Amino acid sequence: MDKPRLSIADLADIVWRKSSHSGSGGGDCLEVADGVPGVVGVRDSKDSTGPALCFSPDEWRVFLKRVKAGDFD
């Protein structure tokens, strides 16, 4: 099954939320958009017009599981 192809323009009007795990100093800020069916968007909050990564919900769940497990520490 092919993944949906989205551009940053497709994500322009959706609501982004800042990760609760982003640093409070403003340097490590990640925003997530999970209101698009079949896609979880991720971007750097310091560059809201820059590129966004798009994951399937399953890919996002696996990523979060690995982050919580400390696989990227």
Could you give the distance between the termini? Answer: 32 Å
The stretches of 5 or more residues where confidence is low (pLDDT under 50) are: none
In the sheet with the most strands, the strands line up as 1-2-3-4
Instruction: Assign an overall shape.
Output: globular
Number of domains in the coordinates? 1
**Radius of gyration, in angstroms, nearest whole number:** 13 Å
Could you tell me the mean pLDDT?
A: 80
State the helical fraction: 10-25%
Structural class: alpha+beta
Largest sheet properties: 4 strands, antiparallel
Number of helices: 1
Task: Tally the beta strands.
Answer: 4
Order of helices and strands: EEEEH
| Proportion in β-strands | 25-35%
Question: What do these coordinates show?
Answer:
The protein has one helix and four strands. It is α+β, with helices and mostly antiparallel strands and 73 residues long. The protein has a four-stranded antiparallel beta sheet with strand order 1-2-3-4. β2 and β3 form a beta hairpin. The protein is globular, with a radius of gyration of 13 Å. The model has no long low-confidence stretch (mean pLDDT 80).
